[in-house]
Amino acid sequence: MNTEIFGVVAMYALTILLAVPFGRYIAKVYAGEKTLLDPIFTPLENAFFRLGGIERKAEMNWKQHMVAMLTINFVWFLLGMFILMNQGWLPLNPDGNPGQTADLAFNTSISFVVNCNLQHYSGESGVSYLSQMFLMFLHFVSAGTGMAAAVVIFLALKEKTTDKLGNFYNLMLISCTRILLPAAIIVASILAFNGMPMTFEGKDSMVTMQGDTVGVSTGPVAAFVAIKHLGTNGGGFYGANSAHPLENPNYLTNMVEMMSQMIVPLGMIFALGFFLKRKKMAWMIFGVMTVGFLLLCLPTIVWEIEGNPAIAKMGIDMGSGAMEGKETRIGSAASGFWSIATTVISTGSVNSMHDSAMPLSGMMQMLAMMTNAFYGGCGVGILNFLIFIILAVFISGLMVGRTPEFMGKKIEGREMKIAMIVALLHPLLILAGTALAAAFPEITSANLNNPGFHGFSEMLYEYTSSAANNGSGFEGLGDNNLWWNITTGFVLILSRFIPIIGPVAIAGLLAQKKYIPESAGTLRTDSATFGMMILAVIAIITALSFFPALTLGPIAEYFSL
Amino acid sequence: MKTNIIPAIRLTIVTLVFFSVLYPGLIWGVAQLAPNRGHGEVVVANGKKYYTNVGQTFTEDQFFNNRPSAVDYNAAGSAGSNKGPSNPEYLAMVKARIDTFRVHNSDVDLKDIPVELVTASGSGLDPDISPKAALVQVKRIAAVRKVSEDAIVNLIDSHTEKPLFGMFGPAKVNVLGLNLALEKL
């Protein structure tokens, strides 16, 4: 067990060590400074923009940004619907998988466009290779969309008054080409050399030693898995996601996949510090997020190592921990760690089945998505956190009787209203969705894989995962039907675009305001005290909103064990 | 909207070609240099090809048995059981697995049965078991195969894969490798 804990510590520490220089690189890319990769990418991107008919230097205000973002996302969604529904006859379908139904294609296409990847299908039988390749494209550009939105905020928080905030297409594309692509090539190569398939030849079969014939699904897995993690998408190539031995063959690949899903969100925090020359602010944000992450993560690891008390009562050796839904090569500690990392960040890939995790571990996984503020997905992590900063600035400003200011800009009624709408939308979608599903047991109860409190948790988890744009699931839920495909589809759209538009609007409004230099009277927003204030705001909002629902699910289940 | 739609479509086409054709093409090229040219690791024994990393059903007493699987080791449709920890039906199933194990391994103490041998993996394709889970099966296999227990224990030792760099992660034994070696004993 000791080596399992060392493994977890090593992958977390290594990620943070890598994230600081990576953040410096990200800041350089967005600031347009020289980097080593310029000779390759500058001509390449210029060609993209010439063929796309886009003037990359034309700057946009925040509204133009959002219109451009929504338009191109809509194009991706329609194209996704078309490919998924027609994959049966389109080329690159060696396994002969059928086209998706309209409702499933609706859910799948939205889910990948918004960087969530709920996956109400199983990768082996639900999509063709052509669809997998298209989803891989969405892995890149949906992450790029989130990062572009975050950079709008970087630009808006500079010490000047402006409404020109860069070009959306340019920011989106350089996020993909200069940040995600080089990293994806490195990660995919490591994965391919560790036995992950990368082939287009379709399903193979083997005769086992006991004489059964079984099919073995392969495919272009390595390229897919690399960007699935780097882009914090999380949609797996196989049904079992990164628990599948071909999608995560050994402990090294497990570490690499874990580090690659954390590196961009962490890097973006440090990039903010380098970009705005406010490193202390970046460390404050990183500190708050890390405290929150560890509070969720450490107990979960302990519960998973201890194992299921109901099985322990049977008197067997519990040395390996809670092994239902877990893989031997990964072990319970690294599975517990992953389950929180993937829910805190909006990845949603899994290396163990969350449905079979201990009751309170399941609660922590849900809380990670309900707070939706620690680390977060590619770009959107910063956006979500900005909302909590604004709330904390306003509340502490009122408490000490000073004008609420952030980065030298006054926070006024309009910004507060937007922040409140975004902050309250999240619990509204989760709780209203779950309440609705619970109100129609004649439709939804047949979809549950477990009775009692745990069945309720399955529904709560599904809406939480949709609203956090996470994509993991209590996968026992039979979710490929009209109810789940359509309701979660709408939750996905609202919970992606409003939390992007809201923070970008706030940033856009702040950017137009006069810059007030810091003085002795300014409330410092990069101090540890202010960090604790943010943590308190996050804790209060989540605890008040979600505690009642959690008592009906995981907490009740815990006490029944 | 109007000024954006045409550039959006054109940029989508260009980036689509780049990220879903050229990028995977490049990785495919890299994979040609990898072990088994990107087809997944395989081992060939007695003219039959097996995927090293894909678990297969081993339920016969003469083989090292592996973990239960929610999909009967169907490598064309991976999945876990997704049973919740308090599900009474599930707990009864675990109990039944323990009883079955004790019928086949009558001299193993209840407290020595490792939990992974009675719980299903996440993928349903777990190729490994812990060294402990292999060692509890030694007596049964020695009796069925009529070989010395020491020989089998040595086999487990030589097939145990240490944690990564000796420091990170659990130790494990690949069940397929172990059973192939058992056949040669």
UniProtKB/TrEMBL annotation, chain A:
Mode of membrane association: Multi-pass membrane protein
Family annotation (InterPro entries): KdpA
Subcellular location: Cell membrane
UniProt keyword terms in alphabetical order: Cell membrane, Ion transport, Membrane, Potassium, Potassium transport, Transmembrane, Transmembrane helix, Transport
The keyword Metal-binding is annotated on this UniProt entry: no
Chief site of localization: membrane
Domain of life: Bacteria
GO molecular function: P-type potassium transmembrane transporter activity; potassium ion binding
Membrane spanning stretches: 6-27, 66-85, 134-157, 169-193, 258-276, 283-303, 373-398, 418-440, 482-511, 532-556
NCBIfam families the record matches: kdpA
Function: Part of the high-affinity ATP-driven potassium transport (or Kdp) system, which catalyzes the hydrolysis of ATP coupled with the electrogenic transport of potassium into the cytoplasm. This subunit binds the extracellular potassium ions and delivers the ions to the membrane domain of KdpB through an intramembrane tunnel.
Name the UniProt record assigns to this protein: Potassium-transporting ATPase potassium-binding subunit
Designated gene of the protein: kdpA
From TrEMBL, chain B:
Record GO terms (molecular function): ATP binding; P-type potassium transmembrane transporter activity
Alphabetical UniProt keywords: ATP-binding, Cell membrane, Ion transport, Membrane, Nucleotide-binding, Potassium, Potassium transport, Transmembrane, Transmembrane helix, Transport
A GO cellular component entry from the record: plasma membrane
Keyword GTP-binding assigned: no
Membrane topology, record value: Single-pass membrane protein
InterPro entries, alphabetized: KdpC (IPR003820)
Cellular compartment(s): Cell membrane
Primary location class: membrane
Function: Part of the high-affinity ATP-driven potassium transport (or Kdp) system, which catalyzes the hydrolysis of ATP coupled with the electrogenic transport of potassium into the cytoplasm. This subunit acts as a catalytic chaperone that increases the ATP-binding affinity of the ATP-hydrolyzing subunit KdpB by the formation of a transient KdpB/KdpC/ATP ternary complex.
NCBIfam families: kdpC (TIGR00681), PRK00315.1 (NF001454), PRK14002.1 (NF010606)
Family: Belongs to the KdpC family.
Known partners and oligomeric status: The system is composed of three essential subunits: KdpA, KdpB and KdpC.
Name of the protein in question: Potassium-transporting ATPase KdpC subunit
Source organism (scientific name): Dyadobacter luticola
